[in-house]
Amino acid sequence: MTKFVYNFHEGDKDMKDLLGGKGANLAEMTKMGLPVPPGFTITTDACREYLNKGLVPPELETEVTQALRDVEDTLGRQLGDAEDPLLVSVRSGAKFSMPGMMETVLNIGLNDSSVNGLAKVSGDERFAWDSYRRLIQMFGKTVLDVDGDLFADALEDLKKERGVTADVDLTADDLKGLVETFKKIVQDATGDPFPQDPRKQMDMGIEAVFRSWNTERAHIYRRRERIPHDLGTAVNICTMVFGNMGETSGTGVCFTRDPSSGDSGVYGDYLMNAQGEDVVAGIRNTLPLSALKDTNRPVYDELRAIMRKLETHYKDLCDIEFTIERGKLWMLQTRVGKRTAGAAFRVASQLIDEKLITPDEALERVTGAQLTQLMFPQFDDSASRTLLTRAMAASPGAAVGQIAFDNAAAIRMAHEGTPCILVRRETNPEDLPGMVAAEGVLTARGGKTSHAAVVARGMGKTCVCGAEELDVDLKNRTLRVGDRVFGEGHVISIDGTTGEVFDGKVEVVDSPVTTYLSHGLEAGLKAAGDDEDMADLVRSVDRLLTHADEVRRLEVRTNADTPEDTERALGYGAQGIGLCRTEHMFLGERRALIERVILAEDDLAERAEAMEALVPLQKGDFLQMLELMDGKPMTVRLIDPPLHEFLPDLTELEVKVAVAEALHKDGPELAKDKRMLTAVRKMHEANPMLGLRGVRLGLYLPGLFALQIRALVEAAAELKAKGKDPRPEVMVPLVGSIRELQLVRDEALEIIKETEEKYGTELNIPIGCMVELPRAALTAEDLALEADFFSFGTNDLTQTTWGFSRDDVEGAFFGLYTEEGVFGVSPFETIDTHGVGRLVKLGVKKGRSAKPDMKMGICGEHGGDPDSVHFFHKVGLNYVSCSPFRVPVARLEAGRAAVMSED
Amino acid sequence: MTKFVYNFHEGDKDMKDLLGGKGANLAEMTKMGLPVPPGFTITTDACREYLNKGLVPPELETEVTQALRDVEDTLGRQLGDAEDPLLVSVRSGAKFSMPGMMETVLNIGLNDSSVNGLAKVSGDERFAWDSYRRLIQMFGKTVLDVDGDLFADALEDLKKERGVTADVDLTADDLKGLVETFKKIVQDATGDPFPQDPRKQMDMGIEAVFRSWNTERAHIYRRRERIPHDLGTAVNICTMVFGNMGETSGTGVCFTRDPSSGDSGVYGDYLMNAQGEDVVAGIRNTLPLSALKDTNRPVYDELRAIMRKLETHYKDLCDIEFTIERGKLWMLQTRVGKRTAGAAFRVASQLIDEKLITPDEALERVTGAQLTQLMFPQFDDSASRTLLTRAMAASPGAAVGQIAFDNAAAIRMAHEGTPCILVRRETNPEDLPGMVAAEGVLTARGGKTSHAAVVARGMGKTCVCGAEELDVDLKNRTLRVGDRVFGEGHVISIDGTTGEVFDGKVEVVDSPVTTYLSHGLEAGLKAAGDDEDMADLVRSVDRLLTHADEVRRLEVRTNADTPEDTERALGYGAQGIGLCRTEHMFLGERRALIERVILAEDDLAERAEAMEALVPLQKGDFLQMLELMDGKPMTVRLIDPPLHEFLPDLTELEVKVAVAEALHKDGPELAKDKRMLTAVRKMHEANPMLGLRGVRLGLYLPGLFALQIRALVEAAAELKAKGKDPRPEVMVPLVGSIRELQLVRDEALEIIKETEEKYGTELNIPIGCMVELPRAALTAEDLALEADFFSFGTNDLTQTTWGFSRDDVEGAFFGLYTEEGVFGVSPFETIDTHGVGRLVKLGVKKGRSAKPDMKMGICGEHGGDPDSVHFFHKVGLNYVSCSPFRVPVARLEAGRAAVMSED
Known about the structure:
The structure is a homodimer of 903-residue chains. The first copy, chain A, is elongated, with a radius of gyration of 34 Å. Chain A has 4 domains: 5-239, 2-Layer Sandwich (Dna Ligase, domain 1), CATH 3.30.1490; 250-336, D-amino Acid Aminotransferase, Chain A, domain 1, CATH 3.30.470.20; 377-510, Glucose Oxidase, domain 1; 552-582 and 604-640 and 703-900, Phosphoenolpyruvate-binding domains (TIM Barrel, Alpha-Beta Barrel). With 903 residues, the first copy, chain A, is of the alpha/beta class. Chain A contains 36 helices and 33 strands. The longest helix of chain A has 25 residues, at 604-628. At the A-B interface, helix 25, helix 27, helix 29, helix 30 and helix 32 of A face helix 25, helix 27, helix 29, helix 30 and helix 32 of B.
């Protein structure tokens, strides 16, 4: 038979699944011999049984009786006894801390008769009646679902009547009257009297905790936090101890280190003659824990000893709740304490020094998300500000600058040394120069994975997007927000961590952690200056990141298309380029050449000529980047997007031509536009994402891939001739079948061979492919025969596996889908392990079945996402590739994955 | 050690993999004791070995020597012996008959000396020298790669010189001189003399056959026919027998039944004093086989006896090559003969009657493709015609009618009883009424799976599409082809089987098979009239189809959206509706309501009202169809396409508004257009295929699915009240996760419950989902928990698995992809078993792992494709659903799959 009830001395901290977090820790402290008031925990099994059957299991009642008797025997008192009543608290306690559930009912066991016993035993009638009215109030509200305001209002009315302001100024008689009022409120609201039977109070409390697991608030919370709905909660029954039994009693909360800064040394607050809720409510000013040293040295010393013991035992910063009842210290709760990002790194490093944990364990104490937080500059909290609007926090950081409405303006301002914010309705690849020039990007449209957001995150640039209240008027070059209108050059500030947009300049604080990450320890320490905490933080980050690098199995590469990106990524510790997109190399002035290629159509000579002209330009790009990457791999993806992306927009051109014709504006421009329109119409696709792109485009337009491959291979040959060590890799996008890959590979091998002969050198250039279509993963054992490596493209793989394009759906219904629990988090942010992840796993398995040592990586947005990195470690990839700014996070998480995974 | 050479008496007909088709059949006939000239076969193993290593394996040479010696010993003659030379032929013979490879070299063994021996032994000097010159000519051309025209020209020159027209008029001396000329041609072209060593001739011939496996022509052929490249060919070495040794010799080809009509009784041609090539070349008129009865009764009788023996042995119509050498009959080849579609059915039925095969075996002798051919009307072969252009044969059949440029014209003509052809640049759902009204559809754009093609096939309507030479000018209502211009009403004829478009009327022949399929045997026989062959064909089709229905495990349902489709499909034997699309029910006059729903946006009351107005209309549709389907399941798919498909096209509207504004045409219409434009812009999607559609739309726009479900459920309840047996099933499209399905299912269950209470009845309505996204297949074990059935949507699954949309890619690069061997046939025609099929298999397996008895079907285009039907049988689906016209094919193929599969 399942055991439903555990006395505190029966459990331990590893039984969280069964006893919940609170119960497991109470048991652990009991086991450690710390002064925990006796009690017991009802398991999550019991809760699940209750939820399934809608009935409290009869065995549970028997076991509770038994456990309660144990406690009563230990203390020699009985629940609700009229002379010397044992009182208990009933608290929920799930595996994961969960606001939204019923929390606590104190003073269970008091009734019209035992209240007198309590008064006698405590020698404090006022205390006894105050405890009783608190019970009725809490019980009424949380167990009986009575409107809490009814009790609060009655209390206020009474105080007014008595002409006092504080609760403590009410007398015992006042409180006796209040108890009567409260009982009447319960009777009126529920139709039943307040229950006098102590055991019934307890049973009702237990059932209320069970029920609270399924409230709507709890559901919503779990969905958001991705906590399974079927865990259930435990219930803790604990003997009451009182911090409000006069001036030798008190209650407090403390941490074994400062959870905010990470400084070692105690940190906490307490209040004498108070109950826990008084501390939390903030009605009275709390005292710092150090004050206890002076008022009650023995208790203070005992508490400090317990704190040291707990920290040594838990090997981590602990968060503690305690109560002093007439000079006797009781521990009511402990857990590993929450902390800020900075504190996490500093504490982990301290614990290594104190030899409480190993460096491996220390890695488990910090997260990539924390490191990300430490990397972004932030607005100075103390600075004043005027909020204009709040939108999507697309790429964290704080940026201040003049409004720039286009590339030209942004570049001009950057040239003049004036920081600027690029403000656009939305961005596209053409806006790249402006984004590079600007401090941050603000758009009126688009979600967290819009072009602006993705590119900005890639560049580590602050971005707020989808600010629908903004009206960007390009013609008049104004930005309107409500009834305020700003012109170009007006200064605004944007907070990419909160999504806030401010009028004017808000002061920004830089992060020395970022300085360290990009320029090394010395530079980081210098940036920290006199701030000793910051310097210690920089040293701690360095220590943990260095350890992560030592233990991780995943290589970390970067997605970089430009020399600037490449340099930044190398600074951040990238070990190679996992994705160099080449289409960006066709923008700007080179666009004219691509247009020539497209418009040439069947004029093969013209097309060949236009392509030929692109070779030296593209070679120049590759020379620069290969030189920077000397000795490190650089994976170059052949052109991927459909060609019409390089032509004008169909609708805009149709409108232009139609209007010109309607107004009879004949002339060479119209003629030119009409020629272009014919080409654009021909290339137009209903679903460009699923159109003529990637390898399909390469095969369809002979010579296109060849020109890119030639440019790359010749660049490598030239560098090699100069004694460098270039390591390019050719990557074919959007492959769905082995034959496609074969055709491109044959062509590439031919070019490599020719170039080797021409330069009299030997080049070892791997040729691989993206695995970004379901079919590629499903037939990976075939592809492996023609591929030297795989790179999983989880962006496209997510789009095709789910059948939605992120351009179209994120804004439209991701909000709804998150709300409805279809996903916990966007599958474009964290890899959908259950669906897309299965394809990745299948691809790895099938690919390795054909080529056991095949190198495999991932170069989608997920490469820098902590959860995803752990998944990629687990499925056995060799590397992740992510945007430069995410490289440190990926390094840290790859290290964490290595120490945390079971293999 | 591998055995590379098999004497004819060592093999049999089941060894086609090793001996090729020809070799296996020669061996079989030898085994049967038929008069086959002695010889041997070199295996495909030897060919593969040669192709891999580039060298004739040394063991092969030894084995050939041994086999040759056997033949020589049997006949008591030696290859190329000067006195009484043994001559042989060398022929290729792969597993599958394969034009494009080297075929035959005859008379191997002749040289300057043995030619005299042959002359002496045959007593015919002219014959000997003619044989020698034939050897040099064939050997030169096929083995030595000498330009064949050189020989032909020399022969012509000689005939001119001698003043004769026929080869036979050349004398022995003439031919001696010709042999010298031919030898010089060889010497000049190759630099080497014509080889005199008989064994060297043979070895060179063998190697030439091996090599011919890898010619470009052979490669292209194999790719097109999906024959693996690694099979290799066998080589047959056979003793020469001569049909040109005077008037008692001859050669011929015959079939054991008429391969054209299927009539029983012999059928063949022969020529006396001729070699096989003379029969094929058609220089001299052949005689019908019956003539042989009179000229050489013993040989005729022997041949007839052999034919009966072969047919009994092969249990099928055989195709035979024979030679008579001086009165002695020799069998040179046999195989199961090719036949027309009609003959296939008739012969299969005859063979059952003759108790040569079982009905199960008969099913293996016919195909769905043949049945399809029998169903389409065709142009009368003898009718005259003027070709206008040739384009894609999108949906077979022959249609004649007046040009109609739009719905209105087509409907008007149909009303007037004038057949018409709908001619459009391309079609979309709006053109449906016109397509229904027209005899056939002709479009200037779009491929085999364009809207026009798919819908036309679905309706069994003739369609030619992608006729790029057509210029459809809607404004002037003209159709231009080259310099000819036709107005509306001009008569054209289109052939959907060949893709031809003709000017004027071409006579059409109707198919009684179709009459039988839709109206039963009696009607079919009546349609056949006096045509006994046709009547027999109708009976044969009925017999085989009836047997298919008895043995098949797959149910055959239909995709039908209208009562008309439904009736047609029922006629064709559909057992249910597997896909009833509901979006078509929102077209026409109801479009205004859908526009209201969309334009209502946040005006919930307005939206609800518009939706409410749709309920009775949609209920009316369902009532009609459910009544027709009484007692049979009808799966209704909730609305799938994105809503903007119901709004005007963005670009057109942008142009309209911009032009009106440019011309200052203010007014209520512009204002209305601008309001609409705002909505259209808002709903516009970059990739509608991957946008807000299917279940996503249903969840996004609350009430939309509900209105459809309510209409369906109420229709069912009303019919049930009338004592009918409605069996609707609700199908949710585009599901990717269990949660989506759960939400819709909960809503549907609620509506069903309400309706049951309202009507006081009990409805048993299964709720299932499409599996048309990779994620659905990958997580099918989850979906199965919430789904009562699965229907695989292999169209969308193909699009997402390959990552291409058929709208965009089919025209653009499917030609290239077929050419380059990426696929043998479009994956939209036949399911890509290696990629998409793996997902289907996975979906079935995972789904059944959760729900072992779950009903699963498929409702994509593939449901009526023969190869795909076999695949679906094999993976264990319960039903296929296809367009009405394909129902008979699916029934037949499902039966074939059942008897042909191994389970």
